[in-house]
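Input record (one chain):
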Amino acid sequence: MNKKLVKELKTYLLIAIGSSVYAFGYVMFFLPNQIPLGGIIGLATIFNTLFAAPLGITNILLNAPLLIGGVKMLGRDFFLRTIWAIFTASVMLDVLRPIVPVYSNEKLLACLYGAIIIGAGFGLVLKAGGSSGGTDVLAKFFEQKWSVNVGLTNLVTNGVIIGANAIVYQNIESAFYGIIGTYVTGIVMDKMLYGGDVQKNAFIITNKPQEISDVIMHTTGHGVTCMDAKGMYSGNERSVLMTVVKKHETSALKDMVTETDPLAFMILSDATEVLGYGFKKYESELVKKKDKQK
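The corresponding structure, as predicted from the sequence alone:
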């Protein structure tokens, strides 16, 4: 069988599994406890609550105009994968709802466990190259049309939808649980996408670049890159060192720098994924193909 076809089939299978996991978490934990999610599924839940409209079918119908309008923005492959993700999730929402046992003992536990399962499902879909569609497409449209930040559009849209659900449920606590659930879902999605590979990226401005570089490389084994810079306030030439260390090495790095140059200025930030020697190895399909040909 063609390798490209096999790879594509695996991609669609992963998307289907991720969509099913998400649907399972939603109908078992969120829906019976009136915990809303943002996005199109949140709108579909409002129609389901008010008019008993089938959740999955409503989800497809509400997504359809957005997907049709966003065909050019999404690109062929991403568009097809997104359609598949929405279709499988919608089918599973209606299939699983009558047969999955609901959890309604403790609302906070339902919110947390549901968010973990939903986030894992969404993360698997995104990792496979798909999308949940809906408001993501709307956010991209606003960005291209009026340069509105994608994050801001999603924040406002999801906030309005979660608030509308709370009004329909006539329970303000639903909105609070919805916010918690959305936040935890986002964290789990990030962990699924990046595998929890959070390291520390360090920028060090110093007058002793060689001494600090030597101690870092000797102690941690990580490389250091030196860049020439100029302080705009003082007008003095300075050196900026850049290095990446593992999370547990952060305290040692601070000690090494301050002991070597007490006047050094250091900026530490999270690096969500680090590829290369000493960290995570990554090979593209092109590299793998070339290696096989050798």
